[in-house]
Predict the structure of TetR/AcrR family transcriptional regulator.
Amino acid sequence: MTETPGTPAPRRRGRPARAAADGGPGARERIVAAARAEFAEHGYDKASIRGIARGAGVDPALVHHYFGPKEQVFAAAVEVVAAPVLEAPDIVLAGGRDEVGERLTRFFLGVWDNPVSRAPLLAVVRSAIANETAAAIFRDLLSTRLMARIADGLDIPDARLRAELAASQLVGAALLRYVIRIEPLASADVEQVVAMLAPAVQRHLTGE
Amino acid sequence: MTETPGTPAPRRRGRPARAAADGGPGARERIVAAARAEFAEHGYDKASIRGIARGAGVDPALVHHYFGPKEQVFAAAVEVVAAPVLEAPDIVLAGGRDEVGERLTRFFLGVWDNPVSRAPLLAVVRSAIANETAAAIFRDLLSTRLMARIADGLDIPDARLRAELAASQLVGAALLRYVIRIEPLASADVEQVVAMLAPAVQRHLTGE
């Protein structure tokens, strides 16, 4: 950290010459932002604490001080990246039960359809698919922060399993449409895709 | 595989000392097998023609002679790995239309439930998700060899798109169950999962 409060500093390259011991104001947020960029560019395996520290303009020891080892830095980055998706339970549980499938499908595809929210999510998903440690972090987040909350709001048997099958429909559609880009799915109008997916999601969530 | 017919040979390490110019009998198959192992272990980006040649006990030039550049070697390996999944159109199109969703779901989950068929498939999927070139090869195979054939056999509007949405349900379920391993989906009885997924797949394929 080389800036003083209230002084916008240019983007740093290389080792900072004079790093404040606490990284200065906003250091934690800068580290998380740098971690997102590092994991997105290099994937979980090749991302390094040193690279994250360099991107944030802080000493590597400070990254460890704030977050601990690499998996904890990844967890913090995933938390921020997944924030839009973690709103899903509120979407599901607000409003009429008959349109829950349509609301969740439109919300989820909306997040993926927007390149700004898609890019960091895709980076997280790629890391989780390639690396077991990243998968475990992603799984815990999905389980405790997303699936459990949705399931708790659905008063039906096997709610947790049903919520996961609904999620599997949406995750698979996002994968084939936005990552593998299989046609005609990749170029189909998003509202047509919503209309065709929503009944499947609805059926999983509420059993018809 | 490094042996010649009838002569069990020890697994070679390093550069082969006396490689036959044509790689000897079965060289093509040995190269594909070595390519599968190389891509599975290192991923598309880090896999090398040199490593594949070493694994097959042939000269790197022979790999290029048989297949061309790395993407063509990958395509050949994917072809072999995906062979079980490419039987899906026959499964879909044989037998009664009312059980097409159940047949396809049981077949697909059966391939993924078996560690022997799952491991190489997972390696291909990981490469396709991590690398654009690998994604294009995987996409072409899925499109021309799987989706087009299923769609051609379904006499309904938007058959191609419907087949892809059915596939997205199955791919997403495989991803969450076998790769991310989210619970309770990961530990659920496979027949329970088939019973819960089949109606969604059926609806996509035949519109109820």
In short: The interface with chain A takes residues 43, 125-126, 128-130, 135, 138-139, 142-143, 147, 158, 160-162, 164-165, 167-173, 175-177, 179-185, 188, 192-193, 196-197, 199-200, 203-204 of chain B (CB under 8 Å).
